[in-house]
Amino acid sequence: MNKSESEISYTGKYTPLSRTELVKKLQEALTPSRFNHVLRVEQTAIQLAQKYGESVEKASIAGLVHDYAKQRPDADFIRAIKQYRLDDNLLNYGNAIWHGVVGWLFVAKELQIENIDILKAVEYHTVGHQYMSKLAQIVYMADYIEPGRDFPGGVSKAREATEISLAAGGVSCQTQQTLSYLIENKLPVYPQTIITYNAWVPVQTKE
Ligand code: GDP
Ligand code: FE
Ligand code: FE
C-alpha cells in the first residue's frame, strides 16, 4: 500500500467524496494505463507539495482528477464549448487541448469539486497559464515528470530543474520544451501556449 492509500483521509473541504470514492470514479472513467498515470501524478504532486509547501490534500485531489476528461467523446467537449460560450477557436483543436481547458467543467460538475484552485490547476495542466498558483505549477510539473514519463532528453532535464526550483526551474523548462516540441513537429500551437511561454520562459523581457 502506498503512502496516499494508507494515510490520506480527506477533510471534506474540497470534495464531499472520500479519496477511495474519487479513485473509483477515475478508474471508471479511464483506461487502465491512463488510470495508472493519474495515480503516479497524484504521488508526484504530493511529493512536490511536501517539498514546496502546498496542501497535500489539494495536491492529491488535483493530481487524481487532472485527466478525468481524457477519454470523453469529442461531442461532449463541442457541446460544452457552445453551451458555456467558450472561445470559438477551441473548435480548431482536439482532445489534447480540450481535456484540460474544457475538461475542468466536467470535474466540477461530476466529481463535485468546487475549489477554484484545484479547478484552475486542471484547466491549466496542459497549456499552462500566465498566472499559475503553486498548486497549478505542481500539477503541471507532476504530470510531466511522473516516473512513468519517458521521452528522450527532456524529461530528465525537467526532473532536475523541478528539483532545483518549481517556477524558474521546472515550469520554465517544461514550457520551453513543449513549445520546441510542437514547432519541431509542425503541430498547431494553441495561443495560450505562447502566452504561457512569454510569461515563464524569456529571461529578458525587453529585446
Ligand atoms: P497527458 O494528458 O497526461 O498526456 O499530458 P498533457 O495534458 O500535458 O498533454 C497532452 C498533449 O497536449 C501533449 O502531447 C502535449 O504535447 C500537447 N500539447 C500541449 N500544448 C499544446 C499546443 O499548444 N498545441 C498542441 N497541438 N498540442 C499541445
Ligand atoms: Fe492531460
Ligand atoms: Fe496527465
Protein traits:
single chain; 207 residues; mainly alpha; binds guanosine-5'-diphosphate; binds fe (iii) ion
TL;DR of this structure?
Helix 7 packs antiparallel against helix 8.
Question: What's the helix and strand layout?
Answer:
Elements: H1 3-7, H2 19-29, H3 32-52, H4 56-65, H5 74-83, H6 95-101, H7 104-110, H8 116-123, H9 134-145, H10 154-164, H11 166-184, H12 191-200
The structure holds guanosine-5'-diphosphate (GDP) and fe (iii) ion (2 copies).
Main beta sheet: none
Task: Count every beta strand, where a strand is a DSSP E run of 2 or more residues.
Answer: 0
Low-confidence stretches: none
Our Rg estimate from Cα atoms comes to 16 Å
How far is the N terminus from the C terminus?
53 Å
| Order of SSEs | HHHHHHHHHHHH
Please estimate the helix content.
Answer: 55-70%
The mean pLDDT is 95
The gross shape turns out to be globular
Bound molecules: guanosine-5'-diphosphate, fe (iii) ion
The number of helical segments is: 12
Helix and strand composition category: mainly alpha
Strand content: under 5%
Structure report:
With 207 residues, the protein is mainly α. 63% of the residues lie in helices and 0% in strands. The chain has 12 helices and no strands. The protein has helices spanning 3-7, 19-29, 32-52, 56-65, 74-83, 95-101, 104-110, 116-123, 134-145, 154-164, 166-184, 191-200. α7 (104-110) runs antiparallel to α8 (116-123), α9 crosses α11 and α11 (166-184) packs across α12. The radius of gyration is 16 Å and the shape is globular. The N and C termini lie far apart (53 Å). The model has no long low-confidence stretch (mean pLDDT 95).
